[in-house]
Amino acid sequence: MATQIGSQVEKGKGKTLNSQKTDKWLSRKATRLASILAASLAGLLLPVMPAVHAAETITVWHYFSGNPSQEKVMTDYKSIFEKANPGVTVENVYVPYDQMNSKLLAAASTKTGPDVVVFNGAETSLLADGGILAPMDTYWSAFADTAQFPASVIHKANGKVYSAQGYVNLLGLWYNADILAKIKMPIPTSLASMERAMAAAKKAGYKGITLCGLPQGQGEWQAMPIISSTGFNYGTLDEKSLTAGLAIAKNWVDKGYLSKEATTWDQTVPFQKFLVGDTLFAENGNWQAGAATGAKFKYGVAALPIGTKGKIYLGGEGEGIGAFSKNKDLAWSYLKSTYFSKTGQLVVVPVGSIPSRLDSAKDTMVTSNKLLKPFATEIAKNGANYPPSEIPATKINDAQTAGGVAWSSVIGATAKPANAAQQYIAAIKALKG
Amino acid sequence: MADLKTKLSIQAVWSTQRKGNYLLYAVPAVILLTLLSAFPLIQLARMSISEVGIRNITGSWKNVGLSNFKFIIADPNFRQILVNTLVFVGIVTFFGLLLGFFAATAFNDNKKSSDFLLAFMVFIWALPPIVNGSVWKFLLGGDGFINVMFQKAHLISEPIPFLYDPKFALYSVAIVNCWAVIPFNALILKAAFKSVSKDILEASEIDGVTKFQQIRYVYFPSSRPTLLVLAILTLVYGFRSFDFIYVMTYGGPGLATNTLPFLGYIKAFVQFKFSQGAAIALLSAIFTSGLAFLYSRNVMKEEEND
After folding, report:
1. pLDDT tens-place values along chain B, 306 residues long
2. Interface of A with B in 385-404 (CB under 8 A)
């Protein structure tokens, strides 16, 4: 280093001060010029050079917002995969629930789209039909753990596997234990005891129940346990049973247990209302377990008291690979090490979701979780596959809308249960052909 | 004489060439307009007479004639949805114009406070409907600001079910929609008022007219052409309104706030029956154009008679 400085001094010997300054200025200018030129060239060349990092980025489209626990799962999966695959970036992209399908379709029409899609598993056939999802057969058949997945969480269309669920979601009866204690009522085990508790709560100045009454899929999802408790199902389409089921909701509204405002609530809002602490029950899902930890009262979950006839849809998000993913192998690798792996599935337990793998479901983390126990009971006793097999898979959205409208009409008192039932059944019959 | 003829013919050719050149300049704009307006309309019309679903949206479309229209009209809920649409459009158009006119007259001075208020209103108008709708949903909720305020003032004992009772829901959403269009109408009408001759205003003041008479006999007749255009614009705005319904009620309770544009959305983007959605959109467009045509023809006739 010293020699170099010495040689520079030697080189400067014999020159005037001004010329030395000029040399330095020129040298600085040349350096700057060279830097700018290099940067420009780099900028020009970058787009034509092979995008090593771009190829190692996978995009995951999901619709989780407003529930920090669910959002955390997405960031946890990102960390897990990026840690295991240095140089790979996982880009989580939030798309509102209502816009997910139309945005996927819009992207597919220009032959683009996400690498991984986390969507409503019941709509697999619809998305497969639209050319939005890529078949996963090759990956699935080579997957060593397929035996761990029950058939109900593997979604097929035209005989091919298009998605699978990493967990199962379902509805239960959340209760405010403090209010139950104050009104001296037990945890309900039948519809009659549930209504007795709501009557007592109302008398004591509390609200009875919160649920979703939107005239769309979420409303239909919440309606099903209640309307099926009287014997209604898509197979027999018995109008009398459906009328009786819808009358239960009407009775709750008439007696002031349930607010008509439920017709403007999606599934998130009623749980936020429940967390305020002045409502006895909430018909809501296991995925609210994370949100519930913020409650300032004692709470618990019981199985929905819907008897032996009642059915609770076993839902949850399906995970699939985008049809226009440029890196399907990496997308599969992501799914395999997160949603479909034993350890990956345990990440969803704090959210309240039940892992779909048999080995994960047996993990002590799941079996020792008191909140998950009632849901596990429900799966065994009242669990029903979703979408229901009686409805053509590609027409499931029509059925959801028809059910949601009937449910909302009764809660909002725009139709009598008998009329709503009649219209609902007519719509389903038309779908079944 | 021959020279003159030659001169004239040269001028004529030159003029024609110039005209031709001018037309050439318009070609890019015509192409752009055709691409942006005519092409989507043609596609919409084609889609409405075809069978288009999620499977073939990017493929070939089978012609099914008018069956989509028949299916929509035969829907048992169509009548209720059409009535909802007409009530909704009626409220938005009538109150949007009336209150816009009042706001324009109220702000029709040179005070800075008026300019500030109008600017503030325009800011509200410029906010995305999703934001406006969410704020109003919160304000009108059972335990929302308005109900809580009324209850605290002991004006009501039970909350008013603005958005979840079939008697109120449609009117509530229509009024919020109307509220959003008032600033725009007020701004346009205020500009129209500015064009009223000062002589007429001075003459009316010398005649000793009251403020109300000035509005009735000077401003109202002077702004009629603007009002006509605004009426059509507001009617179209009301007819295509979808955002506020989507955010505030999602068409419910039941079908209480379901209108044709919302039904079109459900058909096209929830059930993926694109052709039925297109049929509804086309029906709405024809209906709006028809109303606008009838209205403008009547007003023009009146003006001719005057």
Report:
1. 556 666 666 666 556 556 667 788 889 988 898 888 888 999 999 999 999 998 888 889 999 999 999 999 999 899 999 999 999 999 999 999 999 999 999 888 878 888 888 888 888 888 899 899 999 999 999 989 999 999 999 999 999 999 999 999 999 999 999 999 999 999 999 999 988 888 998 999 898 889 889 999 999 998 888 898 899 899 989 988 899 999 999 999 999 999 999 999 999 988 899 999 999 999 998 988 888 788 778 777 777 766
2. 394, 397-398, 401
d(CA A225, CA A260) in angstroms, rounded, equals 19
Q: Does B255 touch chain A (CB under 8 A)?
A: yes
DSSP B198-230: HHHHHHHHHTT--HHHHIIIIIHHHTHHHHHHH
- Which CB contacts under 8 angstroms, 24+ apart, belong to B212-219? B215/B105, B219/B105, B219/B108, B219/B193
Q: Is the pTM of this model over 0.95?
A: no
Q: Between chains, do B164 and A412 touch, taking CB under 8 Å as contact?
A: yes
Q: What is the CATH number of the domain that holds B257?
A: 1.10.3720.10
Round to whole Å and give the CA distance between A302 and A306: 11
pLDDT, tens digit, 9 for 90 and up, residues A46-79: 333 433 444 589 999 999 987 788 899 999 999 9
Q: Inspect the interface and report whether the beta carbons of B54 and A264 lie closer than 8 Å.
A: no
Residue B186: which domain range? Answer: 69-305
d(CA A39, CA A184): 75
Query: Residue B285 carries which side chain, given as an amino acid letter?
Result: A
Q: Look up residue A98 and give its amino acid.
A: D
Instruction: In whole angstroms, give the CA distance from residue B168 to residue B10.
Output: 73
In a domain, B62, yes or no: no
Q: Where are the beta strands (DSSP E) in A262-340?
A: 279-285, 299-302, 312-314, 317-322
Please give the Cα distance from A22 to A33 (Å, whole number).
16
Among candidates A109, A401, A412 on the partner chain, residue whose Cβ is nearest the Cβ of B266: A401
What is the rounded (10 degree) CA torsion for A393, A399, A403, A409? 160
* Interface contact A126-B54, CB threshold 8 A: yes
Fold of A171-312+385-432: D-Maltodextrin-Binding Protein; domain 2 (3.40.190)
**pLDDT tens digits, one per residue of B15-35:** 655 666 778 888 998 889 888
Q: Which CATH superfamily is domain A52-165+317-352 in?
A: Periplasmic binding protein-like II (3.40.190.10)
How many contacts, defined by CB atoms under 8 Å, are there between A and B?
99
Dihedral, CA of residue B59, residue B64, residue B68 and residue B70, to nearest 10: 180
State the smallest CA–CA distance between residue B60 and chain A in angstroms. Answer: 13
- B92 and B238 in contact (C-beta within 8 Å)? yes
Contact B255 A215 (CB under 8 A): yes
C-beta atoms of A260 and B161 within 8 A: yes
* Contact state of A415 with B76 under an 8 Å Cβ cutoff: no
**According to DSSP H, which parts of B76-144 are helical?**
78-106, 112-126, 129-140
For the stretch B283-289, contacts whose Cβ atoms lie closer than 8 Å and that sit 24 or more positions apart, written own/partner, are B283/B69, B283/B72, B284/B85, B284/B239, B284/B240, B284/B260, B285/B41, B285/B44, B287/B239, B288/B235, B288/B236, B288/B239, B288/B240
Dihedral, A66, A72, A77, A78 alpha carbons, nearest 10 = 80
Structure tokens at A24: 């330095």
Report yes or no on B181 lying in a domain. yes
Is residue B292 domain-shared with residue B155, that is, in the same domain?
Answer: yes
